[in-house]
Amino acid sequence: MSQPVIEIRNLNVGYGLGDQGVRAVRDVNLTLHRGEVLGLAGESGSGKSTLAYGMTRLLAPPGVITGGEVIYHPEQGDPYDVLSLSDSQLRKFRWNETAIVFQGAMNSLNPVHKIATQLTDVLKAHEPKMSETQRNARAREMLKLVGIAPDRMDAYPHQLSGGMRQRVMIGMALILQPQVVIMDEPTTALDVVMQRQILGQLIELRERLGFSVIFITHDLSLLVEFSNRIAIMYGGRIVEEAPASAIYRDALHPYSKGLLGSFPALKGPRRELTGIPGSPPDLKGMPSGCSFHPRCPKAFDPCGSEIPMLENRPDNRSVACWLVNS
Ligand code: SF4
Prior knowledge:
Keywords: ATP-binding, Nucleotide-binding, Transport. Helix content is 31%, strand content 22%. The protein is α/β, with parallel strands linked by helices. Helix 4 crosses helix 5 and helix 5 (162-174) runs parallel beside helix 6.
């Protein structure tokens, strides 16, 4: 496996403190390797986005990081903990080293500014030595790279389709050539054909430019298609992590199996969609033991009282389940 670019160690993130506080991300350990696409899946409320915003310190109050480290390995120089950076170091880290494409990003372009202004503003803020001509040239190049004719530089967001606006956002994330791009449900608002076009193009760009991707979605079928590895989250914890093909062929955790059974098979014979009974746990009243036990068809004795830890297996997978690890 290639070198790590980000190592998340024992990360804990919550909302609020004291009696009113809830733990949204619990003891997460996760490594993103150079050049890989790491998928993060789970239902709404499983902690995926909180993990992404926590690791980049983008969480707004009452979000609070209560423990852990996020070690970033730059291309040159020594690794450092993102959670210990000063505000000015953090500003440089964002965009230059790591960029995020947010949920509903296609609606987050400023409606009163042309695309050109919005792309070149990022360069103005982070590359002050660049001339205006250089900034415009880079912005045109980025638009071309994401499949938009550079003459759309003068368009306003409302003059572009949803898919084009999303491509502009991806171009903006890549404009400073970061090492890591975090995509948080980047194509949820688009139709299936457009989703696949955009994600296919992103993977092509990753092969050309060499960045790594953390791709967050509740749609496991997209991850199976576009990721190298997948981590499944439930109740703020990683419950299974494995190569994408292994999850698709033979998921081990009952929750991963439930997620897989919630969408039609990409290949092979048709199968009945089963879904997962019940709802994700309330963070304020997390079930004891394995937090999935009230919904798990396989729950047995220890599940309701003892928390299963994520255990590494010899086949390059990790699972947190008493059934698998006993
Ligand atoms: Fe189900 Fe028990 Fe495994 Fe949790 S630990 S997923 S309840 S079998």
